Structure formats: structure tokens, C-alpha cells
Inverse folding.
């Protein structure tokens, strides 16, 4: 009985508030027309205090700015979020800025429309912001943009309100709900309102909210539901028994979902690590697996590929996506030609002497590293990520796939199948396989084994170059890039089976997945050790790897 | 290539001319290998300071002469090269080392031959050698104030301590964990994670940080991740949509130089704690930056905290030499204590009897242009060699001036030095 009265009261209060809001907004509207000139002066004078203000003052100024319902508020706040609100050092005039390539700025006054081009940086000072300020500005912006025309903007605004469901925000959301047409947005609003009910509502509202939120994966929901299950100091639940039992059921279903997507996420992480392993090992599988040359400079071929990407990006600074696509063939060509040079210059004279080949190629790797250090400096180079490769594909609030990893996974598979195609379907591939199986016999059949050796080495190195393009998107481009990957690539080839490309595919992916499933339990350091020890033990049992070559050719 | 030839020629020339009327300054920084990325800059800084000092007429009427060697990021080689500098080249002072392991490698040699070294990088503390001056930050000059900032200003309640797996992060995290617990943080609100050097696959770790931070309490990451591994770490943070407003990361090893390696747009708002930022506003700093850009002949080069530490160390040493009127280690060392040199952030660095310096602690937020915006700064803090937050270290002090102590590890309870050399 009491509940019903209470609810009625609540409704009354709510309707009273919404009416009040309406009255206020009408009042405010008429008022703002009359008082525009007065308000204009005071708004700009408050805003102008931003110039030269200390951080603590800035937040106070922003607070008082949000009291005004001025259309210039939003651009100012947005510019502060982006860090593009500056003021002129001498005149203290607030300006919006746009950074140019030569590090100067195009500016335009906030309160006067006088655009100036190529303003030097040292005549401007930035309006300071910090994290705390930015997040409070973001909340204000959310309130303003809640009624924006763009659906995506509205969605973002509602989502950023999830953490801050104050009475004011709930009222705004209710208001939006009445006029909203998009189902997706209405759904979001309902979620937000349900969360707010969960927090502040009475028993029946809470039960309704729990029902609505069942299976919802937003972290806020999980936290709020967990809060309902809190016990007091004597070990008794604080909430109503019915609420507790429903909440624990809902929490359980959420936890199950979280666990499931957790596994899915780890699997994806593993596959993506596996795809990197596949890429770096693919080239080695050719040079080491097929030719039997232990090439310690393999990592440096990867590094050259990455530096090629960097150089191409320098040449095409305004078209990142194109530069990455161009880098793929370019890196292949650069690394392949260096590979051929190494083969012709050094390795062909050391045929059949693995120890000397190992030492010689190790020396080459050091030479290449120091060359890069001298040409590009020892500092890491910046390779930017194009728009289409940054960010993540959000499948649900707790499971998202980062685009760069996704593209690399696809790229690795494409490279792998192209390589298979080359080895199986082209005459070069036929020759390579022939030479690797029986060099003397192939020679007797009129195959120019010398030429085939050079081409094979070039192919292997070229593929390492491709791996470099991919790695430039996820890690440092520096002289030590190759060193970090050489051990991993040998590991994959040995594990998968020397001379077997399919083995390498399976080996790469299984090592990647294994590593990622071990990592949360053991930490990254121990996971690496366990895998290395595991492989050593595995090799004791099966010296030829997962998929050994069979038949006479293997001898 | 030209630069390389010039550098080679310079070091060759330096080692060939053996004129007795110069003061020799040893430079022990890796110019090749993993650490070349960070240490080459410091070598150039020392060379710049020497050139500057010579332009002012040298020291005690003599010219300074740099002796540059390359320990090639190889820790045992640091010891050999230090011996070479002290025995063969007979240098009067050494500026060098970056990683703690290289310093530990040099330490016995410097002590055996009674040399003098200035170590310019922030480190884990728990050491005070008679022959080394630590011009970088001790933990109480970087880590503890940074944690205080996060707790007080950003109301952080949950902590991720992430680091590379070696001595500096392990010791720092041990100190921080004890400190956080003493401030009432529960054990389940602290997550500690170590990764190998050069770790590049951060997907799983970033995702677990995200989950850890999704528990409704404000969470921050305290990062002692070293060097190269930072770039993929921050990239992954950006890609997985972890913004500085949700989970701020405060780093102790990421400076302007490290940031010059990548696109900082997604990192805006993440933090770093240092004793110096290039953006610090002071006349001395403007002058230093201008000199550096002119010396290195590249307008895009940045300055960073270890460079300032090198600057302070060099200035303090020249003052001490002038005060002592000699470059002999046994005369310069006592002259060092109490020497005050202006730092580059507008304050003063004083040499303390425990071989550390007073330094202000600055917290900066990463900006889109790769620079830091200072959001908090303290008065100068005295460097503490032995931390007060670990029970076994709290009772140990270091004082090389007070004759009743005169060691680097005086136990205030037993009133004895531990007997170890540092």
C-alpha cells in the first residue's frame, strides 16, 4: 500500500518537475531574447578570463560559463576538449586554432570573426585543461548534445551519462524519450533509466529494472547489480530478499556471458599473435625450411620492410592509407633485393657449412642494424596508422576486436595462401621444390640451381619484408626491431616442421593461442618460458616438428 | 653518415691527443645496441656541455677534453670500459650509464679505482656509493609524489602497477605497494603485472587492465614499463579505446624523447612524472633548448629529464672543481656537498651528503604535439637513498659528510655501517 502511494507521489513529483522545466524553459527563452545584449557582454567577459588563467581558475570559469545558455558555449567547450583553444599572448584575445603542417596555426577569434593565417606558435598560449576538467566538460557537452540531430552524437551523449545519472540527467533523458524516433536510442535511454531505477528506485522499480537489464553487458550494469548484493557488517543482505535473489540470478547470467566473451577475446588475441608469428616465420620457412640456410639476418629483413614503410610514408605524408598499400610491394622488393645480394655475396660460398653460414649471417645482421642506425639515427621512427586501421570493432560492451590486429590476421592468411600458390603452381615453385628435394638431380635436369637459390632466398626475404610492413603498425620501427622476432620465428618453424608450410600455419596459431591462454594465469614472462621449455621437450619427442616431411626427400 | 664519421673522428682525435694540460671527461654511454636510443642523446649532451665550458675558458685554466667510449648496451662491457677510462685514459670524472644493471656493473670498478661518476637517470634507490653521484630521481622524488597526485587529485582507488621485468620496476613497485597499503588500499585493489623487455603484444594485458578498471572505482595505471615496449602499449590502449579520462596511465620512463617515436593523439591526457619537462617555463630552460637545437643541428630534437640531470651533474661538478681547486677525486668529492646549481625549471638543485640532489617533482599530461603540459609541481624534494616505506630500508641512512656516519648504509638502530661498499 505504502509503495503505491510512494510511487504515485513520485509520479506527481516527476510531472511537477517536468512542468516546472517547461515553464522555466519558456521563461528562459523569452528572457534570453530580451536580455541578449546584456548576456552577450557578460558571457564573453567571463569566457575571456580563460586567457592566462591557472588550471584551478579554468575549471571555475568553465562552471560559470555553463550557467549561460549561449550557443557559443559548445564550440568553446569542444575546442577545449580538442586542445585547440588558444589565446594571443599579448592581447589575451581568445582564438580557435587549426594546426598547419609547418607547425604554425590558422586562427580565428572566438568573439570576432577575424581569421589570420600562419600565426607563429610562440605568440600563442594554450588554455590549460587536465583530465578532470576534460571529463567534466565532456559531461556538460553530453547534456548539450543530447538533442543533436546526429544519431551517433546522441548515442555517445547517452552513453557518457551512464556513469552520472543525476536527477537532472534523468529528466533530460525522459524529455528526449518523448520525442525520440530511433529505436536504438530509445533502447539506450531505457537502459540508462533502468540503471537509474536500480540505483534509486524502490523494490518494484528495482525488480522491473533488473528484468529489463537481464543479459546487458555494460560494465555499469554489472557494478550496480553487484552493489545490490552487498552485505552489511553482520553478514545480512541490505536489500529486499526478492531483489537479492533476482539480482543474483541476473548477475550470474552476466558473469556467464562475461566468461564466454572472455574466452572468445583470448582466442582472438591468440590468433592475432599467431598471425604475427605466421608472418615472421613464413619467410624463414622458405630460407631455412626449404633451402636449409640458417639465416640470422632474417630479423633484419623484417626491419628493412618496416623502414621501407616509414620511407614511403615520408614521401606520401598526406595519404596514409595509400602509403601503406604501396609499402607492401615496395617492402617486398627492397627486402628481396637485399636478400638476393646477401645470397649472391656471401651465402652461396658457404653452402653446406651451416656453422659458418650462421656466423656470417649473424655478422650481416649486425652490419645492417648499424647501417640503419647511421642512416635513420638510433631513435625509433614514427609510422602512423591510417584511419581504417585504428580503433576497434565493438561487438558488445565487453568484447571488441581492434582493427589493426584484424587486418594483420587477414593479411597473414593472404600472404600464406599466395606463398602456397607460388610454390605449388608456378614454375619457380616447381624449381624450388625440385632443388630442395635433390639438388644434384635437379641440376642434371637442366635447372639453374644457382639462380633458383638466389630467387628462393629473395622470396623468403621479401616475405620477411611484408612482415615488416605489418609489424610497423603494431610495434616500434627501430634498429632492434628484427632482433626481437628472430627467436620467435625460428621457434615456429622448428615447431611446425622444417620445410612444411602447413606445419608453420598450425604451429604459429597454436603457439599464439597457447601463449595468450597461459598469459593471464602465469604472466607474460613465465608464459614465454613455459612455451620455450614445452617446445624443447616436444622436439625431444618429435625432432622433425609437428608435420615432418615424409619420404626420401626428407633424408 | 657524415655524423657518424664526425663522431668517430672526434673520439679518435680525443683518444690520440694525450696533452697533459687538459682535464679529461669520460663519457660512458652506449652508442650502439638496445640502449643507444636513449644514451646517444646523453653523450651529445655531455659533449655540448664540454664545448660550452671550453668556450667560457675551460676549467682551472685548462681545456676539458671528452673521452667517448661505447659500451654497446653490454652490461659487463660497461665495467671493462670504465676500467679503460680510469686506468688507461686516466679521466678525472665519468658521466655515464643508463640502466641500473649497467650502473651495478660499473660500481665495483669505480670504487676499486676511486673514480667519480655521475649517473643521470631516475632509479630505484637503495644504493649510495662513495664514488657515484645520483643526479636523477630517487623513488621519493618521482614515484611517491606521482601516486599522491593520482590519489588526491583524481581520487584513484584502484591501482595497476605495470612494469618491465627487471630491478628498477620490481623495487619501485615493491615500495609503491607498501606505500599504497600503508595508505589503506586493500590488496585486491592492487594489480601487479610484469612483462619482458621489448614486449610487443599487449592485447591481453590491456584488456585485463580494462576489466580491472571496470569495477566501478576510479582506476589508474602506474607504469614502470621501460623503453621500446611503451609504444605498442600505448598504441594498444588507444586502439582498445582506453582514454586517459577513464584510466589514466602515469609513466616513469616515458619522456619527450620516447614520445618523439609515435603519434600521440590517442595518448593525450596520460601522465608522466619527472623532475623536468621541455615545456617548463624558465629562462635557463629556453636557453638550454636553444643551445641544444643549435648543437645537434636539428630543430625537431627534444630535451628530456635525464638531459637535465646530466646538465645539473656537470654544472655541480665544475663548481666543485673550482671550489676544490683540483680535479682529484678525494678533493672534489667533499667539495660537492652543499653545492647549489640552478636547475632548468626555475629552482635550485642542492647536492646532499647522501650523493643525491634536491629536485622538484612535476606531473605532466601528454599533449598532441608530444610535449607535456605541467599539471602539478612541488617544491624541491630531497632525494632519499633508502626508502622510508620498506621496513628493512627505513632505518638505513646514507651520509658521506658526517664523520660519525661516513658511509652509504648506516643503520640507525645498530649504529653501524653494514660493511657493504655502497
Amino acid at each position: 500500500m505504502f509503495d503505491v502511494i510512494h510511487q504515485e507521489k513520485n509520479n506527481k513529483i516527476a510531472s511537477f518537475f517536468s512542468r516546472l522545466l517547461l515553464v522555466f524553459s519558456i521563461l528562459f527563452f523569452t528572457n534570453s531574447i530580451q536580455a541578449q545584449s546584456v548576456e552577450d557582454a557578460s558571457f564573453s567577459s567571463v569566457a575571456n578570463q580563460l586567457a592566462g588563467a591557472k588550471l584551478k581558475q579554468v575549471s571555475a570559469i568553465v562552471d560559470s560559463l555553463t550557467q549561460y545558455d549561449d550557443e557559443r558555449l559548445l564550440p568553446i567547450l569542444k575546442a577545449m576538449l580538442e586542445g585547440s583553444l588558444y589565446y594571443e599572448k599579448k592581447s589575451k584575445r581568445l582564438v580557435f586554432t587549426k594546426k598547419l603542417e609547418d607547425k604554425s596555426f590558422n586562427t580565428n577569434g572566438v568573439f570576432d570573426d577575424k581569421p589570420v593565417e600562419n600565426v607563429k606558435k610562440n605568440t600563442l598560449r594554450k588554455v590549460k585543461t587536465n583530465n578532470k576538467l576534460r571529463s567534466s566538460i565532456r559531461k556538460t557537452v553530453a547534456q548539450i548534445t543530447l538533442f543533436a540531430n546526429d544519431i551517433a552524437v546522441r548515442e555517445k551523449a547517452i552513453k557518457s551519462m551512464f556513469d552520472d545519472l543525476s536527477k537532472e540527467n534523468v529528466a533530460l533523458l525522459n524529455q528526449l524519450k518523448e520525442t525520440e524516433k530511433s529505436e536504438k536510442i530509445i533502447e539506450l535511454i531505457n537502459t540508462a533509466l533502468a540503471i537509474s531505477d536500480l540505483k534509486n528506485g524502490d523494490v518494484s522499480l528495482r525488480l522491473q529494472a533488473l528484468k529489463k537489464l537481464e543479459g546487458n553487458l555494460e560494465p555499469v550494469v554489472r557494478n550496480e547489480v553487484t552493489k545490490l548484493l552487498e552485505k552489511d557488517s553482520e553478514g545480512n543482505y541490505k536489500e529486499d530478499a526478492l531483489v537479492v535473489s533476482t539480482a543474483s540470478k541476473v548477475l550470474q547470467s552476466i558473469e556467464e556471458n562475461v566468461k564466454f566473451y572472455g574466452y572468445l577475446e583470448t582466442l582472438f588475441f591468440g590468433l592475432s599473435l599467431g598471425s604475427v608469428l605466421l608472418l615472421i616465420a613464413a619467410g624463414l620457412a622458405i630460407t631455412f625450411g626449404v633451402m636449409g640456410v640458417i639465416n640470422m639476418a632474417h630479423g633484419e629483413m623484417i626491419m628493412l620492410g618496416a623502414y621501407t614503410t616509414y620511407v614511403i610514408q615520408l614521401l606520401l605524408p598526406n595519404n596514409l592509407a595509400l602509403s601503406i598499400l604501396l609499402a607492401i610491394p615496395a617492402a617486398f622488393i627492397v627486402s628481396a633485393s637485399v636478400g638476393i645480394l646477401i645470397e649472391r655475396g656471401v651465402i652461396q660460398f658457404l653452402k653446406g657449412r651451416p656453422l659458418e653460414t650462421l656466423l656470417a649471417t649473424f655478422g650481416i645482421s649486425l652490419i645492417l642494424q648499424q647501417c640503419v642506425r647511421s642512416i635513420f639515427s638510433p631513435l625509433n621512427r614514427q609510422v602512423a596508422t591510417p584511419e581504417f586501421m585504428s580503433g576497434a570493432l565493438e561487438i558488445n560492451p565487453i568484447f571488441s576486436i581492434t582493427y589493426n590486429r584484424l587486418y594483420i590476421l587477414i593479411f597473414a592468411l593472404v600472404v600464406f595462401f599466395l606463398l602456397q600458390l607460388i610454390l605449388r603452381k608456378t614454375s619457380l615453385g616447381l624449381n624450388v621444390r625440385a632443388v630442395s628435394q635433390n639438388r644434384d638431380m635437379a641440376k642434371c635436369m637442366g635447372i639453374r640451381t644457382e639462380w633458383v637459390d638466389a630467387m628462393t632466398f629473395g622470396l623468403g626475404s621479401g616475405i620477411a619484408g611484408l612482415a615488416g610492413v605489418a609489424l610497423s603498425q603494431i610495434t616500434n620501427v627501430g634498429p632492434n626491431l628484427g632482433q626481437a622476432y628472430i627467436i620467435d620465428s625460428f621457434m615456429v618453424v622448428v615447431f611446425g616442421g622444417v620445410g612444411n608450410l602447413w606445419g608453420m600455419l598450425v604451429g604459429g596459431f597454436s603457439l599464439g593461442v597457447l601463449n595468450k591462454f597461459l598469459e593471464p594465469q602465469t604472466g607474460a614472462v613465465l608464459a614465454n618460458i613455459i612455451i620455450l621449455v614445452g617446445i624443447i621437450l616436444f622436439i625431444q619427442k618429435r625432432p622433425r616438428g609437428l608435420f615432418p616431411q615424409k619420404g626420401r626427400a626428407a633424408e | 653518415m657524415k655524423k657518424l664519421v664526425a663522431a668517430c673522428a672526434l673520439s679518435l682525435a680525443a683518444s690520440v691527443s694525450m696533452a697533459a694540460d687538459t682535464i679529461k671527461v669520460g663519457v660512458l654511454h652506449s652508442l650502439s645496441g638496445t640502449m643507444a636510443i636513449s644514451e646517444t642523446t646523453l653523450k651529445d649532451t655531455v659533449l655540448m656541455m664540454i664545448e660550452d665550458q671550453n668556450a667560457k675558458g675551460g676549467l682551472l685554466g685548462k681545456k676539458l677534453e671528452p673521452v667517448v667510449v661505447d659500451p654497446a648496451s653490454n652490461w659487463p662491457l660497461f665495467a671493462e670500459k670504465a676500467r679503460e677510462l680510469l686506468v688507461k685514459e686516466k679521466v678525472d670524472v665519468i658521466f655515464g650509464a643508463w640502466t641500473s644493471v649497467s650502473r651495478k656493473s660499473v660500481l665495483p670498478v669505480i670504487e676499486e679505482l676511486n673514480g667519480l661518476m655521475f649517473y643521470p637517470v631516475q632509479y630505484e634507490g637503495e644504493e649510495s656509493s662513495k664514488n657515484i653521484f645520483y643526479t636523477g630521481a630517487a623513488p621519493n622524488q618521482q614515484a611517491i609524489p606521482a601516486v599522491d597526485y593520482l590519489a588526491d587529485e583524481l581520487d584513484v582507488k584502484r591501482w595497476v602497477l605495470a612494469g618491465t621485468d627487471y630491478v628498477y620496476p620490481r623495487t619501485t613497485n615493491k615500495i609503491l605497494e607498501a606505500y599504497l597499503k600503508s595508505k589503506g588500499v586493500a590488496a585486491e585493489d592492487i594489480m601487479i603485472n610484469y612483462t619482458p623487455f621489448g614486449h610487443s603484444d599487449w592485447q591481453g594485458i590491456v584488456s585485463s587492465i580494462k576489466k580491472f578498471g571496470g569495477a566501478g572505482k576510479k582506476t589508474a595505471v602506474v607504469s614502470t614499463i621501460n623503453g621500446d615496449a611503451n609504444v605498442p602499449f600505448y598504441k594498444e590502449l588507444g586502439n582498445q579505446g582506453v582514454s586517459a579520462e577513464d584510466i589514466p596511465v602515469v609513466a616513469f620512463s616515458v619522456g619527450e624523447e620516447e614520445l618523439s617515436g609515435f603519434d600521440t593523439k590517442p595518448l593525450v591526457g596520460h601522465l608522466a612524472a619527472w623532475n623536468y619537462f621541455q615545456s617548463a617555463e624558465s629562462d635557463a630552460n629556453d636557453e638550454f633548448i636553444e643551445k641544444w637545437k643549435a648543437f645537434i643541428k636539428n630543430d625537431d630534437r627534444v630535451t628530456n629529464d635525464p638531459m637535465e640531470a646530466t646538465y645539473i651533474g656537470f654544472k655541480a661538478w665544475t663548481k666543485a672543481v673550482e671550489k676544490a681547486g683540483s680535479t682529484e677525486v678525494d678533493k672534489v668529492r667533499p667539495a660537492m656537498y652543499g653545492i647549489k646549481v640552478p636547475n632548468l625549471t626555475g629552482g635550485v638543485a642542492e647536492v646532499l651528503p647522501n650523493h643525491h640532489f634536491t629536485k622538484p617533482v612535476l606531473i605532466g599530461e601528454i599533449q598532441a604535439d608530444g610535449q607535456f603540459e605541467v599539471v602539478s609541481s612541488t617544491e624541491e624534494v630531497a632525494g632519499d637513498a633508502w626508502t622510508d616505506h620498506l621496513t628493512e630500508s627505513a632505518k638505513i641512512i646514507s651520509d658521506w659528510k658526517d664523520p660519525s656516519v661516513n658511509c652509504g648504509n648506516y643503520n640507525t638502530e645498530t649504529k653501524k655501517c653494514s660493511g657493504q661498499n655502497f
